[in-house]
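Hypothesis: this fold can be encoded by more than one sequence.
Test: take the C-alpha cells below, design a sequence, compare later.
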C-alpha cells in the first residue's frame, strides 16, 4: 500500500466548470448558512515514522521505520486545523478540486497547527502547486461526498508568504488522505526548521521542493474532518420573569450535513464561550438559553461553542442574540371617590337634623 500512489495523480483535472454551477446555486439559496467551518483533527503523535518527501509521495509506508517523535515535539501533540467558507463546499466533487486562492477561491480564512508551529492565512501560504504530486494538485484540494463533507484532501501550508525569500527559515505541514482509502491512508508529514534554498519566478512551490528541514516525520493515522454550518439564533425574554429565551441555541446549525441535535443520541454539543452577562445561563443538555427574573432589559449577544460529538475537539464559535424587554407597568385602579361636604354643609345638616329631631321628640310627648 502506498500513502499517495503515484498513479493517483495521473490524469487528474481540477473540476472547475461543473463546480462553479453548483456554487452559483448555493450563493442564491436562502437556506445557505451564514458560515461553514471545516475542522481537521489528527491523531496524537504516538507512533510516527521516519520519512522524506520522496518516500511520502512514492514509497510504501509499511517500509518506513517507526520511531519516537523527535523533540521538541511530544507524543501528546497532534495536528489541528480549520478553514471557513461563506457557503458550504459543493457536494460530489469526485476529483481533487482546488478550493484555495489559486482555484475556486472559496476559503475565507484558515489555520493549521502541528502543536508547535501555527500556520495561518495571515502569516503563511497554501502552496499553489505540488510539483512532486502532479500538475493539477495544489495545497488546498478536496474531494467531497454527497453532503458536501470532505472525504479526501491535500492541504500543504508553508510558513512564508509570497513572494518567498531564499535563505529564510521555512516550515511546512502536509496533510493528506487518499480517495482510495481515506481512513487508513491519511496522516500528516511534519517538516520543521528548514531553509528556503531556491526559488523560481512563477513557481512558488519550488522553494519548498528544494529545502531540507532539520526535523521531519510522518504521522500516519486516521484523521477526521468535521463540517459545522453556522446560523445565528435569537430570542426574547421579559425582565422580571424567569424564562427560556431560546429553546435550543443550536437549532439553526448543522453537523456534517445533518441538523444539529443536542442531548442523548445527538450529533452536537454546546457550551458557553466567554463570560455571559449576569442572569443568563445555558442548559447544555437541551441547548436552552435561560434568563433569570433579575436580568435587566436590554440587547445581549451571547457567545457559544458548538462541537461535533463524534470528534469533540472539532468546534466552531457562534453567537446568539437575546432581547430582554422591560417589565410591563401594572395597571392601577383609581379608588371610588367618597362624597364629602364642606364645613358649612356639615353645619346646615346638623341644624336640619336638630330641628327635625326636636319636632319628632315633641310629637312623641304629645302622644
Amino acid at each position: 500500500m502506498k500513502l499517495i500512489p503515484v498513479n493517483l495523480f495521473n490524469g487528474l483535472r481540477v473540476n472547475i466548470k461543473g463546480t462553479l454551477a453548483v456554487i452559483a446555486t448555493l450563493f442564491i439559496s436562502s437556506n445557505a448558512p451564514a458560515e461553514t467551518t471545516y475542522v481537521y483533527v489528527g491523531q496524537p503523535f504516538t507512533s510516527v515514522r521516519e520519512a522524506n518527501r520522496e518516500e511520502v509521495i512514492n514509497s510504501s509506508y509499511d517500509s518506513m521505520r517507526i520511531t519516537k517523535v523527535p523533540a521538541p515535539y511530544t507524543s501528546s501533540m497532534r495536528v489541528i486545523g480549520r478553514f471557513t467558507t461563506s457557503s458550504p463546499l459543493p457536494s460530489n466533487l469526485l476529483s481533487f478540486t482546488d478550493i484555495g486562492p489559486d482555484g475556486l477561491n472559496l476559503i475565507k480564512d484558515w489555520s493549521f497547527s502541528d502543536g508547535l508551529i501555527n500556520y495561518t492565512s495571515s502569516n503563511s501560504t497554501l502552496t499553489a502547486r505540488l510539483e512532486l504530486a502532479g500538475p493539477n494538485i495544489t495545497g488546498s484540494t478536496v474531494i467531497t461526498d454527497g453532503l458536501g463533507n470532505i472525504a479526501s484532501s491535500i492541504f500543504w501550508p508553508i510558513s512564508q508568504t509570497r513572494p518567498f525569500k531564499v535563505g529564510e527559515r521555512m516550515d511546512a505541514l502536509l496533510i493528506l488522505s487518499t480517495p482510495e482509502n481515506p481512513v487508513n491512508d491519511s496522516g500528516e508529514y511534519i517538516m520543521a526548521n528548514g531553509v528556503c534554498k531556491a526559488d523560481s519566478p512563477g513557481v512558488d512551490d519550488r522553494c519548498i521542493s528544494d529545502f531540507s528541514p532539520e526535523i521531519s516525520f510522518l504521522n500516519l493515522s486516521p484523521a477526521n474532518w468535521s463540517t459545522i454550518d453556522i446560523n445565528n439564533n435569537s430570542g426574547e425574554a421579559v425582565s422580571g420573569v424567569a424564562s427560556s429565551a431560546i429553546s435550543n441555541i443550536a437549532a439553526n446549525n448543522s453537523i456534517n450535513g445533518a441538523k444539529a441535535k443536542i442531548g442523548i443520541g445527538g450529533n452536537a454539543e454546546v457550551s458557553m464561550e466567554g463570560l455571559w452577562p449576569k442572569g443568563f445561563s445555558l442548559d447544555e443538555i437541551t441547548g436552552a438559553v435561560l434568563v433569570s427574573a433579575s436580568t435587566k432589559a436590554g440587547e445581549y449577544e451571547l457567545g457559544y461553542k458548538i462541537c461535533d460529538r463524534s470528534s469533540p475537539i472539532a468546534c466552531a464559535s457562534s453567537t446568539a442574540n437575546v432581547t430582554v424587554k422591560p417589565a410591563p407597568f401594572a395597571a392601577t385602579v383609581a379608588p371610588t371617590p367618597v362624597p364629602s361636604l364642606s364645613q358649612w354643609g356639615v353645619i346646615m345638616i346638623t341644624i336640619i337634623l336638630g330641628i327635625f329631631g326636636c319636632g319628632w321628640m315633641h310629637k312623641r310627648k304629645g302622644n
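The first strand starts at residue 35 and ends at 41. Residues 1-30 have pLDDT under 50 and may be disordered.
Hypothesis status: open.
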